[in-house]
Amino acid sequence: MPTPVWLITGASNGLGLVLTLRVLRAGHHVIASVRSKTKSADAVQKIEKAGGSVIEMDMTESQESIANKVKPIARIDYLVNNAGYSILAACEVITEKEAILQLTTNFFGPLYTMQAALPVMRSQGFGTIVNVSSVAAQDPLPACSLYSASKAALEAASESLAKEVARHGIRVLIVEPGNFRTNFVSALADASPDPESIPPHYDDPVGQIVRKFLTVHGKQIGNPEEGVERIFEAVTGEGGKAGHLAGNVSRLVLGSDAWRRMKRKSEKDINELRMQEESASSTDFVE
Ligand SMILES: NC(=O)c1ccc[n+]([C@@H]2O[C@H](COP(=O)([O-])OP(=O)(O)OC[C@H]3O[C@@H](n4cnc5c(N)ncnc54)[C@H](OP(=O)(O)O)[C@@H]3O)[C@@H](O)[C@H]2O)c1
């Protein structure tokens, strides 16, 4: 059997780097993308030493530029759209530049990457696209409007795409992490306005959520090694605690915090739906 090939974005840090090294340990091939080989020299060295290849790709590049980088890859078994970050701020004060950067990085870049990988997967007759989203898409907290919107866009596109490509043997899996101990909060602090600048009328609840995120850094409940293990199992179907989920779930939930939030949100949604059956049906033509 040919060696499976993975394309993993955002491999310079966090979940992307841990997943890249895990996949390489399994003897699979990885093409790992980082924004800058120079800036991420340590990660690049680790990946290349473990047998992986590294390319430079920024999620803010144009559709054409991303296509030019992905199209030369002759075989892609697994595409993992992992690169991403969050801005935390009150919705009212987010600038146009910040809003566009958030949506471009977390939605348009992954979209263009999928579009470039799909012809390869279609011609192979198989492939799995893994889109790393966030519980924030399903249960958006205050201060997370743009981050949640970017991940919700990715999730909606993923669900539609899954229905378009199933007949070509291509699967799409959405990953829903809770809080994981990566560089995420540190990157978030860099990308977000200074908490001191939060207008007083938004201190409750925006300021409270921002301060909570910043103080959790290094103490998050999620273990990245375990998180990527579940991703590996759920996409390859190879045993472990999530192997049985392969092909059976559209969303892979990672972390007890994410699972609890999604359950609470789903129950709220179903209760609201039940309350509205009569009112919703009342808008139909009576013929
Ligand atoms: N950790 C969590 O609590 C958590 C929770 C829910 C969802 N997630 C999602 O999980 C994914 C991985 O995050 P992480 O926790 O591993 O955070 P991380 O340690 O900060 O890693 C994020 C990765 O994304 C890359 N990246 C950021 N902006 C990019 C851009 N414009 N172009 C290309 N790469 C870019 C970073 O590259 P640089 O090193 O160059 O910055 C880094 O490799 C993200 O999509 C995140 O939204 C994380």
Automatic annotation (TrEMBL):
It comes from the Eukaryota. Residues 266-287 are annotated as: Disordered. Pfam families: adh_short. The keyword Oxidoreductase applies. This is Uncharacterized protein. InterPro entries: NAD(P)-bd_dom_sf, SDR_fam, SDR_oxidoreductase. Coiled coil: none annotated. Gene3D superfamilies: NAD(P)-binding Rossmann-like Domain. The keyword Transmembrane helix does not apply. Residues 266-277 have a biased composition (Basic and acidic residues). Residues 278-287 have a biased composition (Polar residues). It comes from Xylaria hypoxylon. Keywords: Oxidoreductase. CDD domains: 17beta-HSD-like_SDR_c. Belongs to the short-chain dehydrogenases/reductases (SDR) family. One of its GO terms (molecular function) is oxidoreductase activity.
